[in-house]
Design goal:
About 45% of the residues lie in helices and about 10% in strands. The protein has about 250 residues and is an alpha/beta fold. It has 2 domains: about 110 residues, Rossmann fold (3-Layer(aba) Sandwich); about 90 residues, Orthogonal Bundle (N-(1-d-carboxylethyl)-l-norvaline Dehydrogenase, domain 2). The longest helix has 17 residues. Keywords: Oxidoreductase. GO terms for molecular function: NAD+ binding; oxidoreductase activity, acting on the CH-OH group of donors, NAD or NADP as acceptor. It comes from Trichophyton rubrum (strain ATCC MYA-4607 / CBS 118892).
Length: about 250
């Protein structure tokens, strides 16, 4: 995302929160003054806590962390927002010597639930190398952010997506097989199980491409056929219908 797009996204979120009286205009102005958009990793050289949130592409994430460890201060915590990729694998990218834990010990996942400004849940996932200091600092920061943290081990999909993604995938299969319309599928789950939104709407908000990437990781890492991505899920990604961010997914935006 370039800086103009980042600024526009922030302005939209702040304006929405002010309009809904979640925050005051004064608070919105204060938040805005604290943000410095950038497209350069080098600008993170004085950061104490860095959270990466690029797409769920393993090589992209490991490449970023291999660079961050040489840019960020030696005390900085390097967090990822990954929802499925091994934290141990990402941490290993920060060093060429497996015995050197100076970088890997500072890697952790802070997986924020979507939509982040609304949902309080955050998943904390540790790798084999993650230190207790990194865990404690991350938990304290999440608490100060008003989030409610849940711990998970470094297993494919962790807790949230190990449960959530098969649910979304099955909803897509129901739509693909004509068992129900998109409206009926979302309606029965929203009003029948008291969730904020139905699975197809949620997939649009998460990003259908992200859902596919997570299902692929689950399927590949576990070898279990129950995690095989639905055919319609794959075709929608091929069509570029990846959800709200594209203006089209299971619904139009």
């Amino acid at each position: 995302m370039n800086r103009p797009c980042a600024n526009a996204s922030v302005e939209k979120l702040l304006a929405k929160d002010v309009a809904k009286e979640r925050i005051t205009q004064e608070n919105a102005d204060k938040v805005r003054s604290m943000l410095t958009p950038t497209t350069k990793l080098e600008d993170l050289s004085s950061s104490d806590f860095i959270i990466e949130a690029v797409p769920e592409i393993p090589d992209l994430k490991t490449s970023i962390f291999s660079k961050l460890v040489n840019i960020a201060p030696a005390h900085a915590i390097l967090a990822t927002n990954t929802s499925s990729i091994s934290i141990t694998r990402i941490a290993a990218a920060t060093t060429e010597d497996p015995k050197d834990l100076s970088g890997p010990s500072r890697v952790i996942s802070t997986h924020f639930m979507n939509p982040v400004p609304v949902q309080k849940g955050v998943e904390i996932i540790t790798g084999l190398q993650t230190s207790q200091d990194t865990i404690d600092t991350s938990l304290e920061l999440m608490k100060r952010m008003g989030k409610i943290a849940a711990r998970s081990t470094d297993s494919p999909g962790f807790l949230a997506n190990r449960i959530l993604m098969p649910y979304i995938n099955e909803a897509i299969s129901c739509l693909e097989n004509g068992i129900g319309t998109r409206e009926d599928i979302d309606s029965i789950m929203k009003y029948g199980t008291n969730v904020p939104m139905g699975p197809l709407t949620l997939a649009d908000f998460i990003g259908i491409d992200t859902c596919l990437a997570i299902m692929n990781v689950l399927h590949q890492e576990t070898g279990d056929s129950k995690y095989r991505p639905a055919g319609l899920l794959k075709r929608m990604v091929d069509a570029g219908w990846v959800g709200k961010k594209a203006g089209k997914g299971f619904y139009d935006y």
